Amino acid sequence: LKHFLTIEGLSRELLIEILEKAEGFVSVAQQAVKKVPLCRGKVIANLFFENSTRTRTTFELAAKRLSADVLNLNISTSATAKGETLLDTLRNLEAMHVDMFVVRHASSGTTHFMARHAHPHSSIVNAGDGGHSHPTQAMLDMFTIRRHKGDFSRLSVAIVGDIMHSRVARSQMLALKTLGVPDVRVIAPRTLLPTHVEEAFGVSAHHDLREGIRDADVVIMLRIQRERMNSALLPSEHEYFHLFGLTEKRLATAKPDVTVMHPGPINRGVEMDSQVADGERSVILEQVSNGIAVRMAVMSMCIGTQNSRAQAAGEDHV
Ligand code: CP
C-alpha cells in the first residue's frame, strides 16, 4: 500500500489485512500500550481543506501512537488563503521532508491528483474528497461491523439517507461488496439516490424505510449533505424525518440484535432521533474509537511500503 485513495479496485485480501492489522493496534489505540515505534522519524501532515472533527483528530492520534511527528496545517491561516496552489503547497511541504499527507478536500479526485504529482517517497491518504470517496471511514465501519457481527458472508446491511452526495456511502458499498456481504440495501428518497446505483454497486434500492430495513443486521444512517446539494433538492428537515428518520418504532422491523451506525456528525431529529442515537443498539461512538486503530493500520502499511522501497533502492534514510 503506497497511497490509500479509494476502496475501488482493492482486493478482499488487502481489506482483510487492514482489518487484522487494526485489531493488532486496538490496545495502543485504547492506550493500554502507549506507543509503537513504527513511524518514528517520519513526518505526517494533516491537510484539511474541509471541516472535520472525527477524521482529523483520529488521524492525528493514530500518527502520534505510531510515534510520527505530526503537522496540522491550518488551511484558513495558511498561504492557501493568499492564492497558493495545492501543488505548490505540496512541493513546499515536501521540501520540509514530510513523508505522508492526509488530505481532505471538497473536490472529488483531489487526492488522486496529489498522488500523481507527489514525490516518489511520499504517500497520500484520502480523508474524504468531495462526493467521491472516504476510504478510511468505510474501513473503520467494516472493522466495527466485523467486531459486532463476525462473518460478513451472511449479513444484510442497510444504508439509509443521502446516498447521492455521500462519499461515505460510496466507499461503504464498495467495501461491503468486496468483503462478500450478500445483501446490501440503499434506502433514500428518489431525489437522493443516484440513477443506476443498483447496477453500479450490486445493491438493492428502496424508498420505504421500514421495508428497506426489514430483518437487517446493520443499519447505517447518513447525514444529509447540505453543503453538496443544489438547494432545489433540499428536503425540509421535518418532512425528511417524517419519512426517513430512524426511531425506535421504525427500527422494530430490523433484526432484534440490529447494530445502528452513523459516520457522524449526526443531525439529531433529522436522520435519527436521540433515543436511537444514544440507545443500546447504537455503536456510533465505538466507530469513532475504532477510527484510531484503523488509521494506524493504514498509515503504518503506507510507511512500511515506503521503507521497503527505500531499502530495495539501497537508500539509507529509512
Ligand atoms: N465521519 C467524518 O468524516 O466525520 P468528520 O467530518 O468529523 O471528520
UniProtKB/TrEMBL annotation:
<comment type="subunit">
    <text>Heterododecamer (2C3:3R2) of six catalytic PyrB chains organized as two trimers (C3), and six regulatory PyrI chains organized as three dimers (R2).</text>
</comment>
<dbReference type="InterPro" id="IPR002082">
    <property type="entry name" value="Asp_carbamoyltransf"/>
</dbReference>
<dbReference type="InterPro" id="IPR036901">
    <property type="entry name" value="Asp/Orn_carbamoylTrfase_sf"/>
</dbReference>
<feature type="domain" description="Aspartate/ornithine carbamoyltransferase Asp/Orn-binding">
    <location>
        <begin position="155"/>
        <end position="301"/>
    </location>
</feature>
<feature type="binding site">
    <location>
        <position position="55"/>
    </location>
    <ligand>
        <name>carbamoyl phosphate</name>
    </ligand>
</feature>
<feature type="binding site">
    <location>
        <position position="265"/>
    </location>
    <ligand>
        <name>carbamoyl phosphate</name>
    </ligand>
</feature>
<dbReference type="Pfam" id="PF02729">
    <property type="entry name" value="OTCace_N"/>
</dbReference>
<dbReference type="GO" id="GO:0016597">
    <property type="term" value="F:amino acid binding"/>
</dbReference>
<feature type="binding site">
    <location>
        <position position="82"/>
    </location>
    <ligand>
        <name>L-aspartate</name>
    </ligand>
</feature>
<feature type="binding site">
    <location>
        <position position="223"/>
    </location>
    <ligand>
        <name>L-aspartate</name>
    </ligand>
</feature>
<dbReference type="InterPro" id="IPR006131">
    <property type="entry name" value="Asp_carbamoyltransf_Asp/Orn-bd"/>
</dbReference>
<feature type="domain" description="Aspartate/ornithine carbamoyltransferase carbamoyl-P binding">
    <location>
        <begin position="2"/>
        <end position="146"/>
    </location>
</feature>
<comment type="function">
    <text>Catalyzes the condensation of carbamoyl phosphate and aspartate to form carbamoyl aspartate and inorganic phosphate, the committed step in the de novo pyrimidine nucleotide biosynthesis pathway.</text>
</comment>
<feature type="binding site">
    <location>
        <position position="134"/>
    </location>
    <ligand>
        <name>carbamoyl phosphate</name>
    </ligand>
</feature>
<dbReference type="GO" id="GO:0044205">
    <property type="term" value="P:'de novo' UMP biosynthetic process"/>
</dbReference>
<keyword id="KW-0808">Transferase</keyword>
<feature type="binding site">
    <location>
        <position position="264"/>
    </location>
    <ligand>
        <name>carbamoyl phosphate</name>
    </ligand>
</feature>
<dbReference type="GO" id="GO:0004070">
    <property type="term" value="F:aspartate carbamoyltransferase activity"/>
</dbReference>
<protein>
    <recommendedName>
        <fullName>Aspartate carbamoyltransferase</fullName>
        <ecNumber>2.1.3.2</ecNumber>
    </recommendedName>
</protein>
<keyword id="KW-0665">Pyrimidine biosynthesis</keyword>
<feature type="binding site">
    <location>
        <position position="104"/>
    </location>
    <ligand>
        <name>carbamoyl phosphate</name>
    </ligand>
</feature>
<comment type="similarity">
    <text>Belongs to the aspartate/ornithine carbamoyltransferase superfamily. ATCase family.</text>
</comment>
<dbReference type="GO" id="GO:0006520">
    <property type="term" value="P:amino acid metabolic process"/>
</dbReference>
<feature type="binding site">
    <location>
        <position position="54"/>
    </location>
    <ligand>
        <name>carbamoyl phosphate</name>
    </ligand>
</feature>
<dbReference type="GO" id="GO:0005829">
    <property type="term" value="C:cytosol"/>
</dbReference>
<dbReference type="InterPro" id="IPR006130">
    <property type="entry name" value="Asp/Orn_carbamoylTrfase"/>
</dbReference>
<feature type="binding site">
    <location>
        <position position="137"/>
    </location>
    <ligand>
        <name>carbamoyl phosphate</name>
    </ligand>
</feature>
<dbReference type="GO" id="GO:0006207">
    <property type="term" value="P:'de novo' pyrimidine nucleobase biosynthetic process"/>
</dbReference>
<feature type="binding site">
    <location>
        <position position="167"/>
    </location>
    <ligand>
        <name>L-aspartate</name>
    </ligand>
</feature>
<comment type="pathway">
    <text>Pyrimidine metabolism; UMP biosynthesis via de novo pathway; (S)-dihydroorotate from bicarbonate: step 2/3.</text>
</comment>
<dbReference type="InterPro" id="IPR006132">
    <property type="entry name" value="Asp/Orn_carbamoyltranf_P-bd"/>
</dbReference>
<dbReference type="Pfam" id="PF00185">
    <property type="entry name" value="OTCace"/>
</dbReference>
